[in-house]
Write a structure and sequence with these properties.
Helix content: under 10%
Shape: elongated
Distance between the termini: 71 Å
Largest sheet: 4 strands, antiparallel
Number of helices: 0
Oligomer: single chain
Strand content: over 45%
Radius of gyration: 24 Å
Structural class: mainly beta
Length: about 325
């Protein structure tokens, strides 16, 4: 029970003993309050599963079967009628699948796959749609039966999830914030002193400096999605890129003369010309690329191409985007 005035929980009673080593636990009551659906890790390092548990019979049974290689099912939300159960399934560390189960037959359907970790999902007032955050940092509404989508709101800041406040008019609130926060710090290896170059409540990562130390570039999600940011010595912070969905940067660096940036996003290399503000991308959509390394004194860089398990070292001209095999 929750004592609202004292803001504390009291009169605890155990409903179901769960695995104490489980990395996650969450439960929702059946509509008749005679049981619950709950999330538990059956054994350490195994996928999270959803179970149903009857308070009367003390019997529980497994209702979802995620892939053994996935992280499993970590969040459930019961529809208002109790006839459908929405389940969030971690496809990997970065993507989330949204499944809906019929509670009378346990028939299931994949409603959407979102290229970002989700915190929660909400049912619409009529139980026909789901409301959640997508990988463009937007709040969308997706119909379960045909997967059609409707944009509800654009959010210009990082946020965890939307919350439906009123199921009649579907008024919304959002929980603002980032999964983690990090500053960009400069450390003097001789004196061991440190100074903050970029202070933020969001994710600031992959900081890179030009060879002369007068320019800095980094990746930040302060506007909701990961973007490249740039700053000259004692200058103003500028957003350089305009990516329209959640992306994973794996490298970022300056060219030797400090006039260009290069890196890898979602397995594709890119270059950004700081003078023309032109961004060029690898045109191969099948292969993946890693390890961008600039050649000394030239506007060329090395990159590793991976295709069907075979790796090739390439040299890329940053101006023309022409590629040749390094030998």
């Amino acid at each position: 029970e929750l004592d609202v005035e004292q803001r504390k929980l009291q009169n605890f009673s155990e409903l179901k003993a769960c695995n104490p080593k489980s990395l996650s636990a969450q439960a929702v009551l059946w509509n008749d309050n005679k049981g619950m659906y709950y999330v538990e890790e059956a054994e350490y390092a195994s996928p999270l599963l959803v179970y149903s548990f009857s308070f009367d019979s003390k019997y529980n049974w497994q209702v979802t079967s995620p892939s053994p290689t996935s992280k499993g099912d970590y969040f459930v939300q019961l529809s208002h009628s109790g006839e459908q159960l929405a389940v969030l399934r971690s496809k990997n560390n970065f993507a989330t699948e949204i499944w809906v189960y019929q509670t009378d037959s346990w028939e299931n359907k994949l409603v959407d796959t979102v290229n970002t970790p989700l915190i929660r999902v909400n049912w619409s007032g009529d139980d026909a749609s789901l409301i959640y955050k997508n990988d463009r940092n937007q709040i969308i509404k997706t119909k379960v039966h045909d997967r059609s989508k409707e944009l509800l709101a654009e959010v210009p800041l990082p946020f965890y999830s939307p919350i439906v406040l009123n199921h009649v008019d579907e008024s919304l609130a959002v929980v603002l914030g980032s999964m983690s926060s990090a500053h960009v710090i400069k450390s003097d290896l001789k004196t061991q002193s440190q100074s903050v170059l970029v202070r933020s409540a969001f994710q600031e990562r992959l900081a890179a400096t030009s060879k002369d130390g007068k320019q800095i570039a980094w990746v930040s999600n302060r506007t909701g999605l990961p973007q490249i940011w740039y700053k000259q010595e004692d200058g103003v912070e500028q957003k350089l890129s305009n990516l329209n969905r959640n992306s994973r940067f794996s490298s970022l660096s300056f060219s030797p003369d400090g006039k260009m940036l290069g890196g890898v996003v979602d397995g594709h290399y890119f270059t950004f010309n700081l003078e023309t503000r032109l961004m060029l991308w690898s045109d191969n959509k099948v292969a993946t690329f890693t390890n961008v390394e600039w050649r000394a004194g030239q506007h060329e860089f090395f990159v590793t191409k991976s295709l069907h398990g075979h790796r090739t070292q390439l040299v890329v001209d940053a101006f023309s985007n022409q590629i040749r095999v390094f030998d």
